[in-house]
Amino acid sequence: MRKIRILIIHTAFIGDIVLSTPLIKKLRDTYPKAEITYLTTPIGASILRNNPYLTHIIEYDKRGEHRGIKGFWAITKKIKMESYNLVITPHRYLRSSFMSFLTGAPVRRGYDNAAASFLFTEKIHYDSDKHEVEKLLSFVPKDEGKRYEIEIGKSLDIKELENSLEESGYNKEYMVEERNQYSMRGDILDIFPKNSKYPVRIEFSFNNEVERIAYFDIETQKSVEKKTMYNVSNVDVHIILNTIVYHLCKYSCFIFKPRYSFFLLLHISR
Description:
By secondary structure, the protein is α/β, with parallel strands linked by helices. It is built from seven helices and 15 strands.
């Protein structure tokens, strides 16, 4: 069963790495079963070696083994193969922003004043009046409450999910026709997020095991492809897309080919 995979990219000075340890703990508290990887310099890796909240540490030796463009592509290729769901980049330099982009992760958070911040899918406001630790903790939204990991092959407590939807302001209908509605008909659960063009359909099989996840059109009731992440008030629905990035030619031209990994994150804040 596929887990949530989180990558932190931070290749700054030792002090900055030390100050980021509360962020690691907050991520672990928020995503207790996730794989959390930290990409940093060899010196930074030595500081984080015994951190109990990290799953993996990747050493990026930008002045040694990974020096220059060749080394950069080598480390980028390595992290791209890991198919991360969420990439957090506190480091505000161009190289880190570009590295985050090349992971192909569907959710990439970075500071709004970072170099090439347009490469992030979510921009975190950099408040110079706040302490560094407080700024780093803002990478994990405070209102992230109970979260469901809806994945093909995984069983789901439907009743609990329905209760959470209703507590979050969603109305139960026989069929969804507008936003902020959901419906449960037999083995089919439809949810229409507030800011989504299409509702999401989740189909179950034996023992409430998720069999299929897809967006669908209300008029035709047919599945449609959609490659957008939605930030919905109270309920965030994410279709996590795997993105295959491959090198087209020696001039570093890239083509992005999105495909569904059939992995849905449903965040519900109470």
